[in-house]
Write a structure and sequence with these properties.
Distance between the termini: 64 Å
Strand order of the largest sheet: 3-2-1-12-13-7
Number of helices: 20
Largest sheet: 6 strands, parallel
Structural class: alpha/beta
Bound molecules: 5'-O-[(L-methionyl)-sulphamoyl]adenosine
Number of strands: 24
Shape: globular
Length: 624
């Protein structure tokens, strides 16, 4: 039995945040559940490296796009490692195979007539990398991120999605297990009913060179979605390893948040039908984590939570437990530190921690740390064991139905009920009256520890490794009652989930919202900005965007700087200008020229101006 899970590939235009961590943790947890239930799984995540946003961010930093994205990859892989995420494939859209496969796919669709050239005029949102129709604009701005859009008028290539709409609609209508949560199915059918416009799939290379060139017209690059979505097939052997692809692809579940529902439930399936590839098995569309002010957490809004600090302070398992338990799949969730501490203290420290301690400590104290026999029964044992067997039967189908919340409800209830079972049977009293009966109760309690731990292991993988120590590393992974072997030695549980002192935490600086746009003075202090004078300025051959300049920073320090200002200045316009230069940036090579700094400028609407300073100021003076 095979299963293939995917996450969106994330834009590399800043550090990842809670939202990115969440989808990846969610997908990781589902992959781990499937593994637990005996599946051979593959899990792909990665990054979406092309597009206008990345291009602009790189230019702003005075880097080439590739240098820029390379520099950001560790932020993603390190965060995923911190979150105990075990992906099989980390996909980068700048990898060479991807490049070729995207071109093969495009050529195939072009040859079939599904891709054709036409005129396009419309609003484009660079932040969301999406064309916005006039009726969707809110106050002339993008409805998604609220930023200004730009009018694009150009010839472009289009994909005829409508050709596959009917076939796709039939596919959805015939299935109840394709779109989760189920209420999203009508939304998708609603979009199809309105009719599908041709999808613009290209950008003029001269305007946005950072993309994969169309194989049939190298004046164009493919627009991000056509490039990005194919990571899912390309990463699992498409056009490369047929056996692998055929084995895993039909089992695919795509996970994402609702912001990219349209691209996944409309663009992608019609693309796949055009490619002649089977549609994925299912899609899970979850809600958003909301940040301060009840707005979607997003880099563009600058209200993101950095999970790193929470994980460093409280551990990855508590963090994963919180995000997976708190967010009701399909709906939005609000992240607060208070809720986080409450979840940890009640369910992990009190309920689960207590159970681990009680059962293992009583066995250590009264049974020489050996698992007792289970030969006798109290009146509570029968119903307890039945409930326990029911739990094992219910969790697996709930997971297949993406009902993670219900599955966790059931597991946590079982943990509470085991604590209640201990209170009802009172083994601390039984030990004086009937040691064999006491041993039987403790056997059942420890079996509950084993099974509830196993069922929680996909959510709290790191703690699960520590729980295994109770069983001296030898924990039977079978989800069946009665697998503990009497006579085997165990260890006493150490405090696995220490309680968080709420009052002490409240006194600390709030950590929950980290504004991506704010930096400390120590970071600012690292940037050296100096006065300079432009003494040479030329066009860069082959680029309508760059000027090659030489800047005098005084004391014989002459810098060659490549500046992205050619659309705003002729070379001679800037000669002898006194300007500001970021002078301690690592040199980068742009179009073959080393750039040894950055000219400071300000962009206002469609205009850009260099920051000029009083020529009276000496050259090479630092900004303080
Ligand atoms: N690059 C595209 C996806 C291409 S997939 C072929 C993209 N990237 S993104 O960086 O913007 O990531 C969007 C995804 O990140 C969401 O669909 C979701 O999985 C996750 N999240 C980002 N912010 C989120 C929240 N505030 N809350 C929950 N998840 C969110 O779109």
């Amino acid at each position: 039995m095979k299963k293939y899970f995917t996450t969106p590939i994330y834009y590399v235009n800043g550090k990842p945040h809670l939202g990115h961590a969440y989808t990846t943790i969610l997908t990781d947890a589902f992959t781990k559940y499937y593994k637990l239930f005996g599946y051979d799984t593959k899990f792909i995540t990665g990054v979406d490296e092309h597009g206008q946003k990345v291009y602009e961010a790189a230019v702003k930093m005075g880097m080439t796009p590739k240098e820029y994205v390379d520099g950001l990859i560790p932020a993603f892989t390190q965060l995923f490692e911190k979150c105990d995420i075990d992906y099989d494939i980390f996909y980068r859209t700048t990898n060479e195979k991807h490049y070729k496969k995207v071109q093969t796919i495009l050529q195939g669709l072009y040859d079939k007539g599904d891709i054709y050239k036409d005129h396009y005029e419309g609003q484009y949102c660079t932040t969301c990398e999406t064309f916005v129709t006039d009726k969707d604009l809110i106050d002339e701005k993008c409805p998604e991120c609220g930023k200004e859009t730009t009018l694009l008028k150009e010839e472009n290539y289009f994909f005829n999605m409508a050709k596959y709409a009917e076939e796709y609609e039939k596919y959805i209508n015939e299935r109840d297990d394709f779109i989760y949560p189920k209420f999203r199915k009508n939304e998708v059918l609603g979009i199809l009913k309105k009719g599908l416009n041709p999808l613009c799939i290209s950008r003029k290379k001269e305007k946005m060179p950072w993309g994969i060139p169309l194989p049939f017209d190298d004046q164009f690059v493919t627009y991000v979605w056509f490039d990005a979505l194919t990571n899912y097939t390309n990463g699992i052997g498409y056009l490369e390893d047929e056996d692998k692809f055929n084995a895993y692809w039909p089992t695919t579940t795509h996970m994402m948040a609702k912001d990219i529902l349209l691209q996944h439930t409309i663009y992608w399936p019609t693309m796949l039908l055009a490619m002649g590839v089977e549609l994925p098995k299912s899609m899970l569309i979850h809600g958003w984590w909301m940040g301060e002010g009840g707005k979607k957490m997003s880099k563009s809004l600058g209200n993101v939570i950095d999970p790193t600090e929470l994980i460093d302070t409280y551990g990855s398992s508590s963090f994963r437990f919180y995000v997976l338990r708190e967010m009701s799949l399909g709906h939005d969730g609000v992240f607060t530190k208070e809720f986080f501490i409450n979840r940890h203290n009640t369910e992990l420290a009190n309920d689960f921690g207590n159970l681990l301690n009680r059962a293992s400590h009583m066995i250590a104290k009264n049974f020489e740390s050996k698992i007792p026999e289970c030969n006798k029964k109290t009146e509570f044992c029968g119903p307890f064991i039945n409930e326990f067997n029911d739990l094992m039967k219910t969790v697996e189908p709930l997971i297949y139905d993406f009902e993670l919340n219900k599955a966790l409800d059931n597991i946590m209830r079982m943990i509470r009920n085991t604590n209640k079972y201990m209170e009802d049977t009172a083994p601390w009293k039984l030990i004086k009256e009937d040691k064999e009966l006491c041993g039987s109760v403790l056997y059942n309690a420890l079996e509950s520890v084993r099974i509830t731990s196993l069922l929680l292991s996909p959510v709290i993988p790191k703690k699960f490794e520590e729980i295994k120590d109770i069983f001296k590393g030898d924990l039977d992974m079978t989800l069946e009652y009665g697998k503990l072997e009497p006579g085997k030695k165990i260890n006493k549980a150490v405090s696995l989930f220490p309680k968080i002192d709420k009052e002490k935490e409240e006194k600390k600086e709030p950590v929950k919202v980290v504004d991506d746009n704010l930096i400390g003075i120590e970071d600012f202090g690292k940037v050296e900005i100096k006065t300079g004078k432009i003494i040479k300025s030329d066009n860069v051959e082959g680029s309508d965007r760059l000027l090659l300049t030489e800047v005098d920073l005084g004391n014989g320090d002459i810098r060659q700087i490549v500046a992205g200002i050619a659309k705003f200045y002729h070379p001679e316009d800037i000669l002898n200008k006194h300007i500001l230069v970021a002078s301690n940036l690592k040199p980068v090579t742009i179009m073959g020229f080393e750039s040894q700094g950055m000219l400071l400028s300000v962009k206002s609407g469609k205009n850009l101006r260099l920051v000029e300073v009083d020529p009276e100021l000496s050259l090479g003076k630092k900004l303080v």
